[in-house]
Specification:
The structure is a single chain. This protein is mainly beta and about 130 residues long. The protein has one domain: Metal Binding Protein, Guanine Nucleotide Exchange Factor, Chain A, CATH 2.170.150.70. Helix content is about 5%, strand content about 40%. The chain contains one helix and ten strands; from the N terminus they run βββαβββββββ. Strands 6-7-8-9-4-3-10 form a seven-stranded mixed sheet. A three-stranded antiparallel sheet has the order 1-2-5, with no helix packed on it. The chain is globular and about 35 Å long. Bound molecules: zinc ion (ZN) (2 copies). One zinc ion binds next to loops. One zinc ion binds next to helix 1.
């Protein structure tokens, strides 16, 4: 996947490009992801060295736990990134990609024990109680 994909928040205050491979998309149904997204998180991931924040004007990081932080636009509120403090990869919200995602697909659901009781998971993809 040599194509460079780009992404942004809703207002355009944060823009990024990814110059390397994107992971398949993982849907996380944990409590923090549900709170931040308003439903559940669906994120791809890229190596930190392949993720280039082209415009970080309104990018804010929220330390959601001791081990990880969540990047979002402080202007329009779009959820954008999730990153372990010591990680070499950054999760990227699939919905923030501009247009074509380069062929990646939703691959599995994680933390399904924490999902809301107002929806069902019946797309046939693998379900994991915690992380995969
Ligand atoms: Zn924004
Ligand atoms: Zn989560």
């Amino acid at each position: 996947m040599a194509d460079i994909v780009s992404g942004s928040c809703n207002c355009g205050g944060v823009k990024y490009t990814v110059s390397g491979p994107l992971r398949e998309v993982i849907a996380c149904h944990c409590g923090q992801c549900r709170k931040q997204s308003g439903h559940f998180y669906a994120a791809t991931s890229a190596s930190n060295s392949d993720l280039h924040i082209e415009d970080s004007g309104s990018l804010k990081w929220y330390a959601a736990s001791d081990g990880a932080k969540r990047g979002f636009c402080g202007e329009c509120g779009s959820a954008l990134f999730w990153k372990r403090n010591d990680g070499i990869n950054t999760s990227i919200l699939a919905g923030s990609l501009d247009g074509n995602a380069g062929g990646i697909k939703l691959d599995r659901h994680i933390f399904v024990a924490d999902k809301g009781d107002y929806y069902e998971l019946n797309d046939g993809l693998p379900l994991f109680k915690q992380a995969d």
